[in-house]
Amino acid sequence: MGNLMKAVVTTTDKQTPLIDKEIARPEVNGHDVLVKIAASSMNPVDVKQLEVAQATQQERVLGFDAVGEIVAIGADVTDYQIGDRVFFAGELGRTGSNAEFEAVNEALIAKAPTTLSDIEAAALPLTFLTAYEMLADKFGIQMVADGAKGKTLLIINGAGGVGSIMIQLAKWLGMTVIATASRDETIAWVNDMGADEVVNHRENYVEAIKSLGYDEVPYIAVLHSLEQHFESAAALIGTFGHIGAIVQSMNPLPVGLIKNQAASLDWEFMFAKTNAGQNIASQGTALELLTGLVNDGFVKSTVTQTVDGLSAQTIADAQKEVSQGSMLGKLVIKY
Predict the structure, then answer these.
(1) How many CB atoms are closer than 10 A to CB 138?
(2) pLDDT digits (tens, 9 = 90+) for 259-278
(3) Residue ranges of the domains in the chain?
(4) Which one of 10, 148, 321, 331 has the minimum C-beta count within 10 Å?
(5) What is the mean pLDDT of residues 302-319?
(6) Burial track 49-69 (b if 16+ CB lie within 10 A, e otherwise)
(7) 127-267: CATH superfamily
(8) Is the entire prediction scored with pTM above 0.85?
(9) What is the DSSP letter of 281?
């Protein structure tokens, strides 16, 4: 291999925010592995991090989901070898997957499911880790088959990337899943993912859920604007229940509404562990579980759109699509 690689790099020019560029190929040492990227998927965090890069005038390589083959390993790597096909979500502070090669700590990866193509596998890591960490780390659910049997989970925005995988994980856990969706195609999608009930988040879904026989819900995942949905979640949450959120609120929230239920508002941010350097190996362990669930038929890929080629244009087009806020499942770029 040469010392340079193709990459898509951020710029400070808002008219041309991404460019194609040859940059130094990462060197690996310690617990790092070097992965030749085969496919990467697009996430809202890519759009947000482009904004951050431009605001701070940084040149960065983004991309936070990938699948590919290990082509080099650091001296301290113990669990993987050259030739292994792996997938991962990576971390914020390093060169990302919008490049031919990416260096990543072995604690953050897992062998990719053998039953999925590169495109199918690339759609899963970041959204699965987000769903897993909300349910396990924040809601305290034991990650074993039927570990939450008989419990009910409401997922607001069930057809997005996180919602699509959370439905499937929750069903493996034995939960009853109520998902929100508003369009014919999104309603069909969440049903296909395994939702038990579907309600329209553009209507009075509090009354709709209560009319289905659920006076309260112990677990609520708000995977969209928290300001828009917090009061409805507060009206449904059960005593000692958990409301989980992933989208930053821009205005004060009436958190006092859940005080008498002694309920919790739980933030989930998948990069918190790597940002802090805390418990990062749990992410590789979670992805190992995902691989097993996929290979055993409990989870299927959530990819719905594919674009070809690593270039500034394809990455920009993918970011534009995701930024619309109405994604069904995941969009994947095949390199």
Answers:
(1) 19
(2) 999 999 999 999 999 999 99
(3) 4-124+278-334, 127-267
(4) 321
(5) 96
(6) bbeebbeeeeebbbbbbbbbb
(7) NAD(P)-binding Rossmann-like Domain (3.40.50.720)
(8) yes
(9) H
Q: Average pLDDT for residues 30-57, to the nearest whole number? A: 95
Residue 257 structure tokens: 């509404």
Between the CA atoms of 61, 225, 108 and 173, what dihedral angle is there, to the nearest 10 degrees? -150
Give the pairing type, strands 330-334 and 303-308.
parallel
Say which amino acid occupies 298: F
| Distance from C-alpha of 107 to C-alpha of 71, rounded to nearest angstrom | 17
CATH topology for the 4-124+278-334 domain: Quinone Oxidoreductase; Chain A, domain 1 (3.90.180)
Q: Provide mean pLDDT across the span 224-246.
A: 97
Separation of alpha carbons 86 and 73, rounded Å: 13
Q: Which of 118, 119, 98 is nearest to 6 (CA)?
A: 98
For residues 87 and 298, what is the distance between their CA atoms, to the nearest angstrom?
18
Q: Considering all CA atoms of the chain, what is the largest pairwise distance in Å, rounded to the nearest integer? A: 63
pLDDT confidence of residue 309: 97
125 neighbors 330 (Cβ within 8 angstroms): no
Torsion (CA) 318, 323, 328, 332 in degrees, nearest 10: 20
